[in-house]
Structure formats: structure tokens, C-alpha cells
Amino acid sequence: MKGYSTNDIAELLQLEPRVIRDIAHGIIDQDRAPGQPYRFSFQDIVLLRTAKDLLAAGVRRSRINATLFRLRSRLPANRPLTSLRISGDGGVVVIREDDQVYNPESGQYHFDFSLSELAGSVAPLARQAAEEAEHNDELCADDWYDLGVDLEAVSPDEAPTAYFRALELDPDHADAHVNLGRLFQEAGDFAAAERHYRHAVKVEPDNILAAFNLGTLLEETGRLQDAIRAYQNALAFADTHYNLSRLYELVGEHQRALEHLKTYRQLIDPA
User: CA 114, 118, 177: angle at the middle one, nearest 5?
Assistant: First the structure.
């Protein structure tokens, strides 16, 4: 079974299983039937570790659950809770950026959460899962994809193997193509990255992340008009409008640049 068990997390984070289940209920999305055991991803572990830190800072468990649930409901779909630097201060939940502290009710968020320390602790679990997966013929493409996501956080060099195994089972697994594209782009293999992004867009035309990443790649390789066309399929992202504003300015279409800049500002600051 994919993911980490409640007992795995209890040992890793030194939390009682009942506390883990109580925090997970209503905060961590779990596609499970009533009574079925929890299975946690690496991102879930990060969120649970955050909740543990909040408990240690004196924040009541009921306030933790209520605040994290509220934060998750307000974030864009592409922004996980684990991207926030969440901590406790004086018994309340706050979001920190450098030396500044933000009240979650203000709607101002900084997406910069460090995972390095926790990743080191989770690494043995992820590697064990990878070794077990090699001998498990029952794993599906989604299982290999999930394993790749976990490995990216703790052992990045091993993640592509898991994504490629996902594609062996499902050549049209769009999310695996997107993540491989990103890894190839970061490594400077732009041709391979483009192939994976374009395949993801072909099999899943409404995959906004694939379109956005393709746009960044085309922009990075100097194909500005192609980048503009790619970004047109990712207009749900505020950053897309910022990038389009800059590109339209570069190609001399100043009115369009201004329109996208206005949209960007409206999306990041609706007030």
C-alpha cells in the first residue's frame, strides 16, 4: 500500500497516533473509506510536523485544525499548505517571512517553506518504499508517480526512475510528464523537457501546470511568441499574467502588457 502509515509517522515525529489522526481529520485530503487506515504522503508529513510545532508553541489543537482548514480553503489550487512558513506565536497561528509576521486572516502569504531537515528524517522511509516497489508488480502508474514525488524531496537523483516507471505503465500519465519535464529543465536538457511538457499538454489540454512550465521553458530558450501561446493555456495562474505582461512589453505590444499587469495585480491583491 502506497504512502506512510500512522505508526510510521508516530515514530518519525514522536506524536501519539491518536493525535495524528485527530490532526489529519478534516485537514489532509484522504481518499479513503470510513474505518480505512490513513496513508500519508511526504507533503502530509510536512503538514503534520507543522501541526506538532504549533502544539509545542502553545496553540490549541482545535485552533490548529480550524486555522489550517481555513488557510487551505483560501489558497489557490496549485498552492499547498506545506508551501507556507507556518508557526505559532502567543498561542495563535502566524505566517512568517524573514523578520516579518503575517496574520493568516490578512490574506498575505509567502510561499517559502524549508523541507531540508524533515526530508533527511524521511529519507530512509522513502528509500525503503522505493526498494520494496522494485519487487512489487501490483503498483500502478499513480503509485510510482507518488513515490517519485516523495523521492524528489529526499533523494532527487532517484525520482526520475520512479516517474519513468509510471510512464512504462501509463505512457500518457500527464503529471509524471510534467515532473520529468521540470527535472530536465532544471538540469538544462531543454529538448527532453519540452518533449515531456508537450506530451502532457497533448494528452491533458487543461493541465495548467504543464502549459505554464512549457511557457517558462520556451521563454528561457528565447522563443517568445511560442511562450506567449503556451501561457494562454495557463491564465488561471497569477504569475502567468505577470510573465505575459513582461513578454508583451518585450515584443512591443504595450496595451496587452498593461492589461495583463492589471490582471496580475488584481489576482494577487483583490482588495
Answer: 70
Q: Identify which of 47, 51, 5 has the alpha carbon closest to the alpha carbon of residue 29.
A: 47
- Side-chain-side CA neighbours of 87 within 13 Å: the count stands at 14
pTM of the entire structure?
A: 0.57
User: Are the C-beta atoms of 257 and 249 separated by less than 8 Å?
Assistant: yes
Helices (H), 57-115: 61-74
Q: Which residues face 93 on adjacent strands? A: 88
Give pLDDT tens digits for 47-106: 777 777 777 777 777 666 666 666 665 555 545 555 555 555 455 555 554 444 444 544
Contact 196, 184 (CB under 8 A): yes
- Domains of the chain in start order, with CATH, are 6-113 (1.10.1660), 115-170 (no CATH), 172-271 (1.25.40.10)
Question: Measured between alpha carbons, how far is residue 134 from residues 144, 179, 256 in Å?
Answer: 10, 20, 51
Which grid coordinates are listed for 197?
A: 511538457
Q: What is the pLDDT of residues 155-168, one digit of tens each?
A: 778 789 889 989 98
Q: Between 118 and 11, whose confidence is greater? A: 11
Report d(CA 113, CA 231) in Å as an integer.
26
Longest dimension (CA), the chain: 60
Mean pLDDT of all residues in 139-168: 82
